[in-house]
Amino acid sequence: MTDDYQTPTRNFIRGGQVLLHNYRMVKQLFDRALVFALMIFLVVTIGLSYYKLSKWHRFAIMHWSTAHVFTFFDNNAKQKMILPDIYSNTNKIKIVPSADVLRDLRIKIAVKEIGDVITLSVFYGALSAIATLVFIFIFLRRRGETQSKTKMLRGYEVLDVKQIKKLLKKTAISDIRIGGIPMPKDFECGHILIHGTTGMGKSVCIKEILDHIRARGDRAIIYDQGCDYISSFYKEDDVILNPLDDRTSSWNLWKECRDSADYDSLAAALIPSPANAQEPFWNNGARVIFAAVARKLQDKKDRSLLLLLKYILATDLKEMEEILCNTEAASLVSGKIEKTTLSFKSVLATYLKCLKYVIAFP
Questions:
Q1: pLDDT of residue 79
Q2: In which region does residue 154 sit, left (phi positive, over 0), alpha (psi from -120 to 50) or beta (all else)?
Q3: What is the CATH number of the domain that holds 352?
Q4: pLDDT at residue 229 in the model
Q5: Is 9 in the same domain as 139?
Q6: Residues 168 and 272 occupy one common structural domain
Q7: 187 CB contacts (<8 Å, ≥6 apart)?
Q8: Residue 45 counted as domain residue
Q9: Are 55 and 19 members of one domain?
Q10: Who contacts 59 (Cβ-Cβ below 8 Å, separation ≥6)?
């Protein structure tokens, strides 16, 4: 939808509809909450009044109300009234004027007590209704916050230090610590992400982990592109894999490859396929040639990386065809497709130039 489509009329309609929709939702919510609060008010008021009023109060209010009705229509009206006898436990039935009922002292006292009880009951009922409304609003607000939060289904999440320490109290811990906080037991064998900008202490954190690893007598494999960790941690029994370092261990290609699958994997690692390669044929063919030549040399006593590079890059087509005779790469180095074979060798030369750094090792 373009900006031209957002006309003032459409914006007015959209704003009005949203406002009305919000009003209807709020009204629906308040209506339900008020109905529930009113029910609580009535239950508390009636229940408390009934509990506080005695049988005499209920008797008095019934006759008092009847007398008011009769006198409203006729001031000289008489009514049958059951009055307790103050001198015995029996009740007397009398026909008395309704006005006398309203003037009866006992009735007046009972009516006043009933009024006080109802007033107190209404007060507590109102408090209960208000508390109910507050509870409903708090509950719905927290319910809304819970619904709007991202729900954790699986995996890891970011926690602060206090939360981490609280969780660690419930599980076994490792002797490796980061900033004084121990890892969960065996967690160092999983994946650890250390994130931060320059100067935040990533290297210090890694070095602290390495100190713990060395203290427990374990070993670690470090990809140290900047050679920063060698000066701090290198010991004579450590293994360095860096052809430009005199302390490095020698690399023997044939000791790493046990079968054809290993040679193919090594070829794929040395000669990767470009991500947007439209013609992977050339890289795939170069892999086949490399793996075939390496397998041919595995049984030779004088095998070396120098000899491997010589066979692949420096021999003529006829000699290469003889070397790869009866292999899956034979058809790729045939003299009948000289230009194609030269293209394969060009790809090989591009990707195998890195081996020149290690040709000094057997």
A1: 62
A2: beta
A3: 1.10.8.80
A4: 84
A5: yes
A6: no
A7: 174
A8: yes
A9: yes
A10: 82
Nearest Cα residue to 68 out of 101, 94, 37, 38:
101
CA distance 155 to 159: 13
Burial category of 101 from C-beta neighbours within 10 Å (exposed 0-12, middle 13-18, buried 19 and up): buried
On whether both 206 and 116 belong to a single domain, the answer is no
Task: Convert the pLDDT of each residue in 66-78 to its tens digit.
Answer: 887 877 777 776 6
Q: What pLDDT is stored for residue 6 in this prediction?
A: 63
Give the domain extent around 334. Answer: 253-357
Alpha carbons 101 and 89: distance in angstroms, whole number: 21
For the record, the structure tokens of 221 come out as 């494999």
Predicted local distance difference test score (pLDDT) of residue 93: 61
d(CA 239, CA 228): 15
- Both 200 and 291 in one domain: the answer is no
Looking at the structure, tell me whether residues 70 and 207 fall in a common domain: no
Q: Considering the entire predicted model, what is its pTM?
A: 0.47
* Count of domains forming the chain: 3
Q: Which of 58, 214, 29, 47 is nearest to 124 (CA)?
A: 47
Could you tell me if 104 and 133 lie in one domain?
A: yes
Low-confidence residues of the chain: pLDDT under 50:
1-2, 86-88, 362
Predicted confidence at residue 2, as pLDDT, reads 47
**CA distance linking residue 317 with residue 321, whole number of Å:** 6
Residues 126 and 17 in one domain: yes
